[in-house]
Amino acid sequence: MPRRRFPTEVAAALTAVLIARTAVNGGYRIVYPFLPEIARGLDTTLATVGVLLALRAALGITAPAIPLLAEAVGRRATMLAGLAVTIVGCLLIAGAPGIVVAGLGFAITGIAKPLFDIPMQGWFGARVPYARRGRILGTTELTWAASLALALPSGFLIVAAGWWSPFLLVAGLALLGVVAVALLMGNDRPAHRVRQPLRLTPPLVSILVVILLYRFAAESLFIVYGTWLESDFGLSVAAIGVFTLIVVGAELAGEGSVTAFADRVGLKRSILVGLLGTGVVYASLGLVGSSLLWAILAVIGWFALFEITIVSTIPLLTELAAEARDRMLSLMAAIAVVSGGLAALTAPRLYALGGIALCGLVASACVLVAAALLAGRVPAPRLR
């Protein structure tokens, strides 16, 4: 990629985002591998913690209001607010004396993610040509996998100190992110507010339904991920942290594939590959049985293909709604948190009824419907 295509401000911002967004994602993701341990630490049930995650998702529905804030104070200031909220949420969880304060902390971290992600993606979408946007936004998505890598030290921290200790780790990283964003990204506060009206055309509505379906599928499986590893394979908390490194590697492979190839093969084609691939993998989860080797292979396919799907969607979305990127991204964030909330409420019950096999079949049906809708109703933007 020619260096001249990306000015210094884009390179500096990318460095800051890689640090900051790892923390924001960490506050969101570090919960999942250790859900059973967190439930035990709070002296409650897995289903109750699932309700807390649903509350976290429900407050993320405020995402459509975030572009209004960014229009008034700038995208950088909104990103800094997201980092500050991550710090507060994680400190509340770490110091929670019981379920009520922990629930408040979970809810706050649910607000933090769209508060950071929407202005960040809009910032790059406005500065990077569509023909190269998959590469840049794909690079920012590497932080999704990097945040889950925090599960490795977190597993050992939990053994040494307690279930709450990973949240202090995330809060410290978020503080470093505040410094990076403040120093490496220039103030973009607008002189006056410029509104970005969004008209929801049939293709835009269709892509939002696609996102709802595949996010629900992925979240419903990830919520029961830790329980599956404990019950079917007898893995300890520390072992789950180590096993999660496989997930990190798979996600990096998926994100790296988008960064390297999606702009060349086309973002819509890349999404279809991810949807059809995950449909097959999800349906096969019930065949894994008690074989850890087959579980590893399934997990690699699961997370690599899902990352190809989600990471390809973001740059496609910034072009489908080029005149109102932040508003469309905010709807994507709202759809994502709604799907996460639905999954948090339904996945533990599906798992109790039919284990990972039933969860996998439901997830597979969702992504195959999404693939059909994407192929028939969503156009591929022209390169420019």
Terminal CA distance: 16 Å
CATH superfamily descriptor: MFS general substrate transporter like domains
Envelope shape: globular
Strand content bin: under 5%
Please give the number of β-strands. Answer: 0
Percent helix among the residues? over 70%
Mean pLDDT: 89
CATH architectural type: Up-down Bundle
The run of helices and strands is: HHHHHHHHHHHHHHHH
Low-confidence stretches: none
Number of helices: 16
The main β sheet shows up as: none
Helix and strand content put the structural class at: mainly alpha
CATH class: Mainly Alpha
In total, the number of domains comes to: 1
At the fold tier of CATH, the topology name is Growth Hormone, Chain: A
Rg, nearest Å: 20 Å
Description:
The protein has 384 residues and is mainly alpha-helical. It has a single domain (3-193, 200-377), classed as Growth Hormone, Chain: A (Up-down Bundle), CATH 1.20.1250. Helix content is 80%, strand content 0%. It contains 16 helices and no strands. It has helices spanning 8-29, 35-41, 46-59, 66-73, 75-94, 99-127, 130-140, 142-148, 151-160, 165-184, 202-223, 225-233, 237-265, 267-284, 292-320, 325-377. Helix 6 packs across helix 16, helix 13 (237-265) crosses helix 15 and helix 14 (267-284) runs antiparallel to helix 15 (292-320). The protein starts with 7 loop residues before the first helix and ends in a 7-residue tail after the last helix.
